[in-house]
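INFO  loader      accepted 1 record
INFO  loader      residues=400
INFO  predictor   begin
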Amino acid sequence: MSEPDLTQPAPLGDAPVVLYASEAASTGAPHIETPVPYDAILLAGFGGPEGQDDVIPFLRNVTRGRGIPDERLEEVAHHYRHFDGISPINAQNRALKAALEAEVQRRGLGLPIYWGNRNWAPYLEEAVTEAADAGHSTLLAVATSAYSSFSSCRQYREDFARVLEGTGLGDTVTIDKVRQFFDHPGFVEPFVEGVREAVAAYLADGIEPSAMRVLFSTHSIPTADAQRSGPRDVDFGEGGAYAAQHRAVAEVVMAELAEAGAVVEWELVFQSRSGPPTQPWLEPDVNDVIAELPSRGVEAVVIVPLGFVSDHMEVLWDLDTEAMEAAEAAGIRAVRTPTPGVDPVYVSGLVDLIEERLNGTPTAERPHRTDLGPWFDVCRPACCENVRAGFKPAVSGVLP
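INFO  predictor   done
INFO  writer      dumping tokens
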């Protein structure tokens, strides 16, 4: 298939075009309520180094096309070198794959799961080729990212299109993708439980709710990308759909805490920014907020890694190391709550999402914990644009 021209959105009167899609998804409907006989699952991860020699090559992959010299990459590499050059993410995805396989088998779905990464081995090319060689041509992708933005959704969709084009499998293999699951109960519940336990522990130590603060932390992204996250025809306010989704989930978590009798103030904060100082990124930074908490009468903080599905390097370094050091410097207590990881509720929720598409579950019957959901099965035109690179071919979404 030749690469389409995505420099401009398709005219409103044109029929929708969804690349490399199943017959049902090719209609471009926001939610696919027709059963699709998928024959395999594609688990898509970010990838990470597994030794000191992997670190710089891995970071080159992450920053490909940006012309960043190795000496600047080494400034970030020390996070990985602190942990012997090993990111936890590949081990976590192996564990998630095994947990998903067990749940898929328990439900009798009979679907094999192939795992591939964007930036490190095993690569997505390997996973898709292995699936095709085994005779599996109708794939449903589950990306290990819950929210809407270029890096957390569209880039995965572009990766799938790039792989199908590069391997020559675009004429025989289709890839659809489950909806963004930020507000699915299986993703939300582990955060609810983590905050509830952390606050209860502080209360048991005699700390009043007024002296606590809950900080929901997620990866910062360029403000321009955030504003373009989600559908273009919806005004999500400052930070676009990306920030709106995080705020909505945080509100659900804190509402449940309040129902249990503890009213604690909270804030959405950001971490791990990596752009030049001249480029606006989402703020405030988690460490800056922690430094200010004592002046607000705060004695204890609960840090919630709301933007992460597992203990990525950004969690181990930016939160478990730097944020904890910031709390110590501020003279306040701090605890970091768990990520979903392989929590059985989370794993079951992911398989629920798979079954939604297998069964064509009606939109009205799909579970969601916020008013923003259930999110789209097929992304809307021009959502989550990469401001720097523009539109590239992407699966599971209406062009461009």
